[in-house]
Amino acid sequence: MKTLLISLMAATAMMASAPAWAQSNEIAVIVKTANSNFWQNVNKGAEAALKDLPDYTMTFQGPAAESNVADQVNMVENAVNRHVAGIVLAPSDPDALIPSIKKAWENAIPVVLIDSGLSEEGSKYYQSFLSTDNKAAGELCAKEMIERMGKEGKVAIMSYVPGVGSEIGRVGGFTDYIKQNSNIEIVGPLYSQSLMATALNQTVDTLAANPDLKGIFGANEPTAAGMGRAIEQAGKAGQLTAIGFDGNQDLQNFVRNGTLDGIAVQGSFQMGELGIQTVAKVIAGDKVEKFIDTGVVFVTKENIDKPEAKNVLY
Length: 314
What we know:
single chain, alpha/beta, Rossmann fold, 6-stranded parallel beta sheet, 6-stranded mixed beta sheet, 12 helices, 12 strands, signal, Monosaccharide ABC transporter substrate-binding protein, CUT2 family, SBP_2_dom, carbohydrate binding, Peripla_BP_I
């Protein structure tokens, strides 16, 4: 116990001393999945930040699917074992990643979280958390939903991976706002595991089972994309209020053609860019905020070509 305490004290001392941070020149960016335009846009932001940091290199990786949490844990473990300078991480599970992040902390490797947070137990092991305020973003989507469909009727919630930090905030914020500000009946949530094809099939079934549905919310990129396709296939475009989350080309097209009334778009590029910049600041010994809000823009047909939307769409 004494030996562990001494090692932890030593690690903490290293963290307080700027030169002791960097053990190599590699910053590892580890996201929920590499197979998503959203996360590829995070990659672009990280690469942009690296242009101003010539002393560092970057690696970018993520599991084949967001639900492959064990694969992501292994990626973090491997980054720690090769003594990277820092880690930018979008954790796929609020609890499963804590032991690996603790290991990084014990080895004086700074960790900056993006997009999703950790359970309270893990808060002392990372240096900063960059994210959309997902609860506020969910509330924004609910407010827009009510304004368009009214305070009565049914709304279906098409969610992604249960228990993920962003999902808890986003869907929780949406649900709470609906319950507190309307008499709307909620159907779901249904969980697509962030698979577009699953979301498509779930939406087809939901539309068939609820012909009186007045609204539908798709809570992340692959889920909203599958939802949009299902709405089109069912010939329901424009017949119910549909709101999505994130902003790839498919979702932009759905907004333009009226399949979706709007999309709440996070600053994914900013997450990557600020993630790298924040790790570099920690290594340099600069003070950073524990939480940095990367913002959200609600994009509709009316503002999709304006700078405020173009800055976040991808």
